[in-house]
Amino acid sequence: MLYSIRMRAAEGGPHEQGGHHISGAERLVTKEELEQISSELVHRALTHSKGCADFIRITIDAIPDEAIHRIPCLTIADEQTDGHIGEVPTTNHEATTPPLPLSSHQQAEALLTTHTAITPVAFRRAVSQLVSLPESMRGAMLVDMRTGQRLDPWGQRGVRVSRMSFADETAAITALNAAGYSGVHLEEALVLASKVLSAPGVVGELCISDDPDYTTGYVSYGSTYHRLHHMKPVGSPLGGRLFFVDATADIAAIKNYLETTVTLVNPPTFSLQGENHETL
Ligand code: PML
Ligand code: MG
């Protein structure tokens, strides 16, 4: 029997009463792990770079074995960018041989629009909606992959991906470390991104962390997760997630799957081992 343990924390009161979101995290764990993980999640809420929580809610539910859905882990790719975030007006990429790397947002656009049906117009419109919000959303925005129009009606809450974990966290972290990857941001994002792309109708994701000191984000599509550095300025608390979907997709079914289906992600696999990809 596994237990779902979920933490959400805010400053200035509960989220429902206007509190400012500080942190959210979760795991699927055994009974023996519950006390240790609860204490780790409380510690995280009290020491977060976004502030010190004065509201922390921990929810624990037992999960029947037959409710558990297993999925593969996305494969990690590290993308080279030129160290800038967006447009770089002085660089003429066409005239340069070999071509210089793109900025992080240009590379994100190139990856998603070359390998999926997401259009450049949709990418730009969706990213501009995300980065012009006054405050980060708690969940993700669902956007039309052809137009970039927001499709979900859930305001600042959006869709919150929940009830997921690595099937064997020790094996997953060992495999990540052996390939030169470490850090809770990457571990949790890889689980979440794997679940997101397993939802019917989702063709791609873009993520910018809302943690002020963490500027690495990613795009994902198919079976791959592409890490991108410098996705926002250091110190910015603005981030979020965009899930690109086909306009004909069933938005309520996607939300229901992402929020409620209990999902275990198999450990990641790597073809090349041993490079150094230090993360926070
Ligand atoms: C978050 O803070 O929720 C997003 C973390 C993105 C991790 C990207 C990476 O390091 O691969
Ligand atoms: Mg965060």
UniProtKB/TrEMBL annotation:
Keywords: ATP-binding, Biotin biosynthesis, Ligase, Magnesium, Nucleotide-binding. It comes from the Bacteria. Its EC number is 6.2.1.14. Pathway: Metabolic intermediate metabolism; pimeloyl-CoA biosynthesis; pimeloyl-CoA from pimelate: step 1/1. It is an enzyme of class 6 (ligase). It catalyses: heptanedioate + ATP + CoA = 6-carboxyhexanoyl-CoA + AMP + diphosphate. Its cofactor is Mg(2+). GO terms for molecular function: 6-carboxyhexanoate-CoA ligase activity. NCBIfam families: PRK01322.1. Homodimer. Belongs to the BioW family. HAMAP family: BioW. Catalyzes the transformation of pimelate into pimeloyl-CoA with concomitant hydrolysis of ATP to AMP. This is 6-carboxyhexanoate--CoA ligase. It comes from Veillonella magna.
